[in-house]
Structure formats: structure tokens, C-alpha cells
Amino acid sequence: MTDHAGPPPSLNLNVRGMHPSATVAINEHSNALIAAGHAVYKLGLGQSPFPVPPSVVESLRQHAHRKEYMAVRGLPELRAAVAEFHRRRAGLRHGYQAEDVLVAPGSKELMFIAQLAFYGDLLLPAPSWVSYSPQARIIGRQVNFLPTSLEDRWMLRPDTLDAHCRRDRGRPRVLILNYPSNPTGQTFSRDELEVLAAVAREHQLIVISDEIYGELHHTGAHGSIAEFYPEGTILSAGLSKWCGAGGWRLGTFLFPPQLRWLRDAMTAVASETYTTTSAPIQCAAVTAFACGPEIDDYLVHARDILRALGTWSSEKLVAAGARCHRPEGGFYLFPDFSGHAQRLQARGIADGDALCARLLAETGVAILPGSDFGRPKGDWTARLAYVDFDGERALAEHARDATVDEAWLRRVTPRVTTALDRMCDWLVRG
Ligand SMILES: Cc1ncc(COP(=O)(O)O)c(C=O)c1O
Questions:
Q1: 267 and 320 assigned to the same domain
Q2: Ligand 1 near 118 CB (within 6 A)
């Protein structure tokens, strides 16, 4: 069964030619280079630099003995805490209850079983997060990428969505909107969400609103499309980003009553696949979602550090001739290097993919090309995750001195500032 020239005939057609997700692959490649003695600046994988808040870690410790299979949909207290969290945080008027919540080992898993349970097309703005489209491919779903532009900060325009949906009216469709965005760090204003909501309602779309970075809006002003289009919106979130707990694997979907049929179908799929989410993690997550002053404080510090570092990094890239927006949330930048295209081509670098490969080889800075996020080949965009720093130390320093200027950043987040120095020097080199 091995030593085949091509794929074995019994390999499912949907997964032929697939590779591990680009973000996972860059992390493994970076670790292999580090193990071989190279200096690598890890701006490839989007992992929160901050520790899990101590009260949440303590809660996990106290619940380590919980070993039972929990309800497929999740621990009732956790589901109640998640519903309350979203009501309070995003100011949702809709009265979400525990029964509207589905808990799973990661929102990625929920996205996957949602696509499995739903029949219809997937609409994705380009660029968007690396895993939505491969998940659709595994299942055999049709994906339609909706174009965006640098001038529109890579955000989906309502008229683009409307024009697409008019082409074949009435077709069942799911739209995934992610804001603050991975890969761009940009987000929608409440006014923009209201207009998009009107288009989604007109075409009866199901919107999966991926708000996993919502709590990391840099000024804490995150709003949700669920406020304007509650009946068609599933709000996706979890512990991975704002609580620094990606490896704990806990994600949540919040459904409106109108989409209970989808919640129920997904619950059935969950019961036949992963069964339930880890019991101790669910218990600790109750503490996280209940929040309180310690977690509020943690978020104030985390947001301010990310805002300052993201702003400094974007300004540095712009000064080096890249086009790059100031980030509004999360921990990503999406620079466009087309202004350097001619000079880079003269150095034998044909496009953004080659740029990322050469940058890693020649400077040790790991970033990902825009093509991994649905941008066309030949494009000069890339995604940079400004997370290679010691988040625990940064929180402590910020609590002592919150004037985060360049000197502070160079002292507390030196790997990111050095990576940006190296990258910008490399770019402008003749
Ligand atoms: C935009 C986006 N959505 C979803 C996820 C998945 O998060 P989880 O850890 O909840 O599976 C990620 C993780 O990188 C992400 O960046």
C-alpha cells in the first residue's frame, strides 16, 4: 500500500493533495529550524502570547478530577455563562439562553460540523482565515470567494455580497464573516455591520460570525452582526484567543431560536464523532466566561499592548514602503509589498510566496503569504502575527508602566521589534 507514484486509489478524492494547514506547517517548520540551531522569529502562527488568567488556571486545577462524559452540547453552567457573556459583552438585545449554546473542542471543529450539517454554498471574503475553505473542500462544498480590496481595508463590501447573491437568488448559502480579522487585523464598525445585515437578511443567508478575536478589539469596542441580524446569525467564539488558551481546545457557537434545526443536526454529528468536550476544561471555562475584575483588567492590559505593538509595526512597514493598515483588533497585519515588486523581482523573488520563503531563509523571520488566505498566486501580500514575545512579562510591565512607547516595545517585545527591523532592512536592501 506504500511506495505509490500517485495517491492510493482508495484515498478519498476530497482530501487528495491536501497538506497540513499553512499556520500549523509554518510553526512546525520554524520549530525544526530552531532545533537545528537557527534564529527564527515566529510571526507565522497566530497564537496568543498571553498566559491563561491565573483564576482560570486555578479553576482547571480544582476540576482535574472531573472525568465523566459531559452532555454533548456542553456543561449546562458553561452554556449559561457563555450566553450571559455574549449578552453582556456584545450588548446583544436578543435574549440568548443556555439552550442556544453548543460547546465543542475548538470553534474550528464547530465550523467543520456546521459545514457538514448545512446544505448549500459557502461564501468567503478573500482574504480569510486559512481553514474555512479546506474544510469545505473536505466535505465537498462549493466555495465562492468574494473579492475585497486594499482600498476597502480588505473588508467585504455590502454591494459585493449583494451582487453575488443576486446572480442565483434563493440558493442556500452560508457566509462566514470574521472580525476582527485574521489575517488583516481590521474590523467592521457597527454602521458597516448594520448594512451587511440588511443584505444578509434580504438574501436569507446564514451568517457564521467568527468573533473569536472580539474581546481583543484594541479599544474594547467590538460589536456583533447578531445585534442587527439575530435570526440568521450564529456567533462563533471560544477561549483560544482572548483567554490565551488555544491548546485547551474549547469553542462555542451561539444560535438564535430560528436556527435550532442546525444546532440539533450539529449536536447529532457531535454525538457520533467527538462525543463531548474535555470535562475539566469546561469547568474552568465557566470561570473564564463569568469574567470579573481580574479578567477585565487582564484584557485592558492585553489590548493596549497589542494596539501599541501592532500600530508601531504597521508604521514601520509603511515607512519601509509597504502598504499596511493600522490594526484594529487581534494580533495580525496584512502588508502589501507590491511597491517593492520590481526590486524584489530583480533579486529573483517572483511573488509573495517566494518573498516569504526567502525572508525566512535570509533573515529568520517567519510570515505567511497572502495566497494561504485566498489571495491569488502572484499577489504580494503576506500575513504577519506580532506575537513572538513573552506575554506574561509584558502584562506585568504594563501594569507597572502603561506608557507603551518605542523604547518600551524594544525592551519588552524585542523579538517582534527585531523581526520588524530585520524584515524592513531586508526589504529596502538594493
Ligand atoms: C479566525 C479564526 N477562527 C477560528 C479559529 C479557531 O479557533 P479554535 O482554537 O477555537 O478552534 C482561529 C484560530 O486560529 C482563527 O484565527
A1: no
A2: no
